[in-house]
Amino acid sequence: MTALQYDRAQPPTGSTAPSTARLYHAYQHGEDSKAAYASDRDVARRIRGLGLDPQLMATQNRAFLIRAVAHTARDLNINQFLDIGCGLPGDPGPNVHTIVETIHSDSRILYMDHDPLVRAHADALLHGKTSTTTVVEADLRDPDLILTQARHFLDFTRPIALLLSAIVHFIRDEEQPHALVARLVDALPAGSAMVLSHVTDDFAPLVMRRAEALLAGERVQARTRGREDIARLFAGLSLVEPGLVPVHQWQQPDAETAAIAPSEVHGYGGIGIKPAPAQNTTRSEQLGRNARLTTRSEQGVLVISVSGMVEEREHAPLRERVNAIAAESAGDVVLDLTAVEFLDSAALGAVLGLCLRLGNDERELHLLGGEPVRKLLRIMGFTVPLHTDLPQALAAAQGQRKRKRGRGRR
């Protein structure tokens, strides 16, 4: 579906105050922007009055996004995309889902934006396609909610492309943009990619401060940043060539575009790939005097092993560490208690609280243990399945992953 099935001349009823989504559209289309209210077009005009060219900045950012999405789908072979701060659908396109669909027939695209107007436009555009492409309301400032919603639609056992196009500069410093981005990236599986673009103040800092003040007067918060600060958003990722560069220079398509000065575009963009964990992923740590906690990856499944005597003083630290380690994994967890010398009901209850946490994320806990653990489970009334050997527990975790993937494709 490429034809737009809604009337841009009649934006959905709502506040006429400028919004980031409509402003971006107004920057691209100027006076021809029918999806923007007069207030959006007025802000775009005043931004131009500062000596900036918002239309050039926005169109070159969009061109970067189109090239980056095509590269991610084609060259990185990723067919799942999470587009946060997606904004209004492109008119004319292409849009993210139409780009990816030409490369992957089994693509899944999840659009997110905090503006209900975006939802209204996108619902009209995506009518009849919600099994493979959908849109939900969410704010970058709430990454945990984003991840919860994303896990209902995307398969977190396979690579995902995270799109943060021209959105992070609307997060103020005190809102910790680097921590918000890191929270999302940490939850992605290895092999995932992040496409990010960000307005910079490297070339005209005083003008950018005036632009920020202008937008703040319209209740739109913005914070432009330097290249070094933007590069920190890619911490832990491997940058795709040519790295973090002015958006119009990222795999530039033609000589005319290459001739544009970076000081006209005022934006950096790049793609970062999340590397696979090191081969030796075994970690071991002491808990109190007599207990030890070991974590490792087995066939792509996180295995947490507890050994030694778990006394009362170890209950709280054991619970905290098991929960923290499990939060680092995107899939099911195997908890191995076969090497525990002493385990009372309070200690078992402490670690089994993990069941509720995993259940909220639609993951499962696969428990591995012997007859003492089985008796405790019976006494305490827990119905957690208990496996008797590691291959059985791993097979159950991997089978659950396949079933989830199958449900997601229907």
TrEMBL record:
Instruction: Record the organism.
Output: Streptomyces albipurpureus
| Matching InterPro entries | SAM-dependent_MTases_sf, SAM_dep_MeTrfase_SAV2177_type, STAS_dom, STAS_dom_sf
Identify the SUPFAM superfamilies for this entry. S-adenosyl-L-methionine-dependent methyltransferases (SSF53335), SpoIIaa-like (SSF52091)
Where does the STAS domain lie? 291-380
Please give the CDD domains that the UniProt record associates with this protein: STAS_anti-anti-sigma_factors (cd07043)
Alphabetical keyword list: Methyltransferase, Transferase
Identify a single GO molecular function assigned to this protein. methyltransferase activity
EC number per UniProt: 2.1.1.-
Q: Known Pfam families for this protein?
A: Methyltransf_19, STAS
Q: Which segments of the protein form a coiled coil according to its record?
A: none
Q: Which GO terms describe its biological process?
A: methylation
Has UniProt tagged this entry with the keyword Acetylation? no
- Provide the protein name: SAM-dependent methyltransferase
